[in-house]
Design brief:
322 residues, alpha+beta, D-amino Acid Aminotransferase, Chain A, domain 1, globular, 3 domains, Rossmann fold, 25% strand
């Protein structure tokens, strides 16, 4: 008898545009379909469709408990336990107004990607409430709404007081040099696979400039521990190496491709990584238990989660395997 096709559900926030091709998960899904996996997209928690596994791909720094509970209904889960990646909770070199630091610092949003996903997806009621609050209290303006708004100051004392808000962080500016250029390292991972992506630029704030390489590597134990702490099965951690130790800038669980997604910018090594990630998911699906018989379209909640595959438990256990 012919084996049933495996099914992967990709769970997005309900505000995510249909047909979005700006994220790595889309190209991973393309490979999965070529490998015979059925891939479905779910937007929000209003509709449940059984699948062998779920890939939580919610572009928010803080994922709601409701959405996490929904994800845990699936037999095998990727990033279902990754609930909070706000920078203030984990990055290195955080500084407060009363600190003394006579060296360059960088101002960032506490939220991932400048908090842009949270701003875009606010409800009309939330937008009106925020506006009324600003008019009533006249707080400092929101200074960082996207990565291009990040700012560098010569010392901590040069940072204007208005920048110290709950929305922002101030961090030591630590640079790793490659000749005259600055280097950014990205620890990119899925399951048991570990890659180091390297970018470099003459700018001190590196976004997408010169792609150097994307190759399998053995991550520093501190990076693996940080991944475990953030409960990440899939994602990346941005860092530089300072005196043999990683200095961590940021983490992301919805990796973007920007304007280069359908181009040759990243190179064959990057594309090979995406295919390897798809193969890792296929291995996980083939070793998972079959899904329960929850009816298609049933509301969120109500059924207990099935046991997860021992090959792909959540990051608290899987991240330790190199």
């Amino acid at each position: 008898m012919q084996a049933r096709r495996k099914k992967l559900a990709i769970l997005h926030d309900k505000g995510t545009p249909r047909g979005d091709r700006l994220h790595m998960v889309v190209q991973i899904a393309d490979h999965l379909r070529e490998m015979g996996v059925e891939v479905i997209d779910l937007h929000g928690t209003g509709y449940f469709e059984p699948a062998d596994a779920v890939f939580v791909h919610v572009d928010r720094s803080v994922v709601s408990p409701k959405l996490q509970r929904f994800a845990r209904r699936f037999p095998v889960q990727i990033n279902a336990h990754a609930g909070d990646i706000r920078k203030r909770t984990f990055v290195d070199g955080l500084l407060e107004p009363g600190d003394s630091y006579p060296a360059p610092v960088i101002l960032k949003s506490d939220l991932n990607y400048g908090g842009a996903p949270e701003l875009v997806n606010r409800s009309l009621l939330k937008r009106m409430t925020d506006r009324l609050t600003r008019l009533a209290t006249r707080p400092p303006p929101r200074l960082i709404t996207q990565k291009s708004d990040y700012r560098i100051f010569p010392t901590l004392a040069d940072v204007p007081p208005g920048y110290f808000t709950p929305d922002n962080i101030v961090q030591k500016l630590m640079l790793e040099k490659a000749g005259e250029k600055n280097m950014l390292r990205e620890y990119i991972f899925l399951g048991r696979l570990h890659y180091e992506n390297i970018e470099q630029s003459r700018s001190e704030i590196i976004t997408e400039d010169e792609h150097v390489s994307c190759l399998p590597f053995e991550p520093h134990p501190r990076l693996v521990n940080m991944r475990r702490r953030l409960n990440l099965d899939y994602g990346k951690i941005d860092y530089v190496m300072i005196d043999g130790e990683p200095f961590i800038f940021d983490a992301n669980k919805t990796l973007g491709l920007g304007a280069y997604g359908e181009t040759e910018y990243f190179g064959e090594d990057f594309r090979a990584m995406l295919k390897a990630f798809a193969e890792e998911i296929v291995l996980m699906l083939n070793n998972s238990q079959t899904c329960g018989n929850a009816p298609t379209g049933s509301p969120a909640g109500g059924s207990k989660s099935k046991a997860r595959s021992s090959r792909f438990p959540h990051a608290a256990r899987s991240a330790a395997t190199a």
